[in-house]
């Protein structure tokens, strides 16, 4: 029997879930869900829900176990829903799960969603690009399993492009990343905004300038970080800072 794998992008707020995602959840026999999703989303599931979340320095479901659960279910001819936080196209390790299904010649359907960068942009009430400020966005991960993060990217090229930088999973290595950006010529006064638990009740945002990189310690992973002059657009950064309670780092709960 040949099963089917749905790769479903799940937001932190169930109101942002797509209609297509809801319909897919209704036909799944088993749903493997991540940590950073609105648990109300699971109410649309008619099958068995299994938690397979990951958090830095906390609970961690090994990827090999997730792959095994997918494989075992597909071999039984079941329909599997892999509910992943954010959008599956960004740093989600989804390729390993897709390859598991491909080896079995199972049907695969990927349902896109809202990436955390877009969610953060909406919360900050500013775009990530603007014609005369930033002509593009660079998405990077702050976590590297096979080398030191300082050697993972061409930081000179990143600075030279002069675009908005979005860092996923970057809290633990942010100071190293910031130091490389500064070494490669980025302005020390470049604004930075970092968001923790976006869309949840404990949502927290901090704002600071790159020279005060140590302020990242005021938030915990998982979080997303935006760096760039786009944050100063029409006083966005100053407005955020005015709502905060610190000298070097501006921190507030939304």
How would you explain this protein's 3D organization?
This protein is α/β, with parallel strands linked by helices. The chain has two domains: 4-111, Tetrapyrrole methylase, N-terminal domain (Cobalt-precorrin-4 Transmethylase, domain 1, 3-Layer(aba) Sandwich); 116-252, 2-Layer Sandwich (Methyltransferase, Cobalt-precorrin-4 Transmethylase, Domain 2). Helix content is 26%, strand content 22%. It contains seven helices and eleven strands. The chain has helices at residues 19-27, 63-75, 94-103, 116-124, 155-161, 174-183, 236-242; strands at residues 4-10, 30-33, 48-51, 79-85, 107-111, 137-141, 164-168, 191-196, 204-209, 223-227, 250-252. A six-stranded mixed β-sheet has the order 6-7-10-8-9-11, with helices on one face. A five-stranded parallel β-sheet has the order 3-2-4-1-5, with helices on both faces. Strand 8 (191-196) and strand 9 form a beta hairpin. The protein is elongated. The model has no long low-confidence stretch (mean pLDDT 89).
Task: Summarize the model shown.
With 254 residues, this protein is α/β, with parallel strands linked by helices.
Q: What is the global morphology? A: elongated
Major sheet details: 6 strands, mixed
Secondary structure class reads alpha/beta
Strand order of the largest sheet: 6-7-10-8-9-11
Task: Give the end-to-end Cα distance, rounded to a whole number of Å.
Answer: 49 Å
Q: Percent range for helical residues?
A: 25-40%
């Amino acid at each position: 029997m040949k099963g089917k794998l749905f790769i479903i992008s799940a937001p932190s707020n169930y109101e942002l879930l797509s209609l297509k995602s809801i319909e897919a959840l209704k036909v799944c026999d088993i749903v493997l869900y991540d940590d950073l999703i609105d648990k109300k989303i699971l109410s649309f599931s008619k099958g068995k829900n299994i938690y397979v979340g990951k958090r830095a320095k906390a609970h961690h479901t090994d990827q090999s176990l997730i792959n095994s659960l997918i494989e075992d279910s597909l071999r039984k001819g079941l329909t599997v829903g892999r509910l992943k936080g954010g959008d599956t196209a960004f740093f989600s390790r989804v390729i390993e799960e897709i390859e598991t299904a491909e080896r079995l010649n199972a049907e695969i359907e990927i349902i896109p969603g809202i990436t955390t960068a877009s969610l953060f942009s909406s919360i900050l009430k500013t775009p990530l690009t603007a014609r005369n400020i930033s002509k593009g966005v660079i998405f990077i991960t702050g976590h590297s399993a096979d080398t030191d993060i300082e050697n993972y990217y061409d930081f000179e090229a990143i600075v030279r492009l002069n675009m908005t930088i979005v860092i996923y999973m970057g809290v633990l290595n942010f100071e190293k990343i910031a130091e490389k950006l500064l070494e490669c010529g980025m302005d020390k006064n470049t604004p930075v905004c970092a968001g923790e638990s976006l869309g949840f009740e404990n949502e927290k945002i901090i704002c600071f300038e790159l020279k005060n990189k140590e302020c990242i310690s005021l938030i915990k992973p998982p979080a997303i970080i935006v760096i760039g002059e786009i944050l100063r657009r029409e006083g966005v950064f100053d407005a955020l800072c005015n709502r905060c309670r610190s000298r070097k780092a501006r921190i507030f709960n939304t």
